Amino acid sequence: MSDTSRPPVAAATVLDIARQSYRAISLYAPNRAPAAIDLSDNTNLWGIPPAAARAISNAASSAVTRYPALYAAGVKEAIAAYLGVKPEMVVTGCGSDDVLDSAIRAFGEPGDMVAYPDPSFAMIPIFASMNGLRQIAIPLTDTSDADAELFIAANAKITYLCSPNNPTGASFARATIERILAGVNGIIVIDEAYAEFARWNCLDLLDNFPRVVITRTLSKAFGLAGLRIGYAVGAPDIVAEIEKSRGPYKVNAIAQQAAIAALTDDLPWVAEHVAEAITNRERLSRALTTLGLAPIPSESNFVLVPVSDAAGLDRRLRDRGVAVRPFSALPRIGDALRISVGPWPMLESCIAALGESLSEGRQ
Ligand SMILES: *Cc1c(COP(=O)(O)O)cnc(C)c1O
Q1: Is the Cβ–Cβ distance between 162 and 190 less than 8 Å?
Q2: 302 touches ligand 1 (CB under 6 Å)
């Protein structure tokens, strides 16, 4: 039924119809140009764990014609066994990115506040905007710790912490985290993407702080970034809300099989390469110090090193076939390069290229 008497309206552009809050959002676009040695994204540079590799070939021929388990129950059980928690304390997602986004959406009404450290994980402000939330970026202290006073003063609906923090690599002090947990009223998300490389983690805090949820991933220590498997651990009532927001079928069938295999049979492989990463991280930090730089002590599988011209150095490193992640004008830090840790020959090439790039920059 058409209404011919309706006055003509100006044709709306797509931007007029799209959500207002999306105008400020641009696509996530880190430089992913191929490089001979890619130390830019903190993935596992030793390759794929063996049991996961076998599970992927098996799943490819058997599991893909049917829908996967709705909420990845088998993966939840494997994660629960790995961490020593109950399966109802676990929610999975398409990478921990998806879990973080789902958690923000589950607890943040449009207009609510998300507080996060600055610098920290670049996706958080993007997820906050995508979900229509307001945001407050709270600068780190001089020691790369979270600023407890400012987080408590912000008292946001959602407080995001990241420990070890990306991009500094440093863990927040346990006392700082506990003060923030005790001092804010909302939900606190602690991103532990790099927990396997750190001396301690926050899992035990779940016993005393029922509004905390910890996110983790199989993308870093477990070497499965391409399969996109992440998870969160927390009280069953929190996890249930995140699961509603996440929706069904988010972890595909091949990823589910690989995750179960990795969490069951690849733990020795993971432990071995984590140990090697930690050794190489310390060796890399010493080599950077020898080049006259002052890397931030790291608890993860990467090292952040302040430099005077990150963009220029990044270009000169890329000319030499080495990709790292440059940052410009980070609060309290300035320009810096984030270098992922991998097998020593890769790091040796990176150090040599960095030495040349630094002297070329001084000419
Ligand atoms: C890499 C990373 C993630 C995301 O991991 P996925 O599980 O691959 O989505 C989350 N948080 C931090 C801090 C990271 O560095």
Answers
A1: yes
A2: no
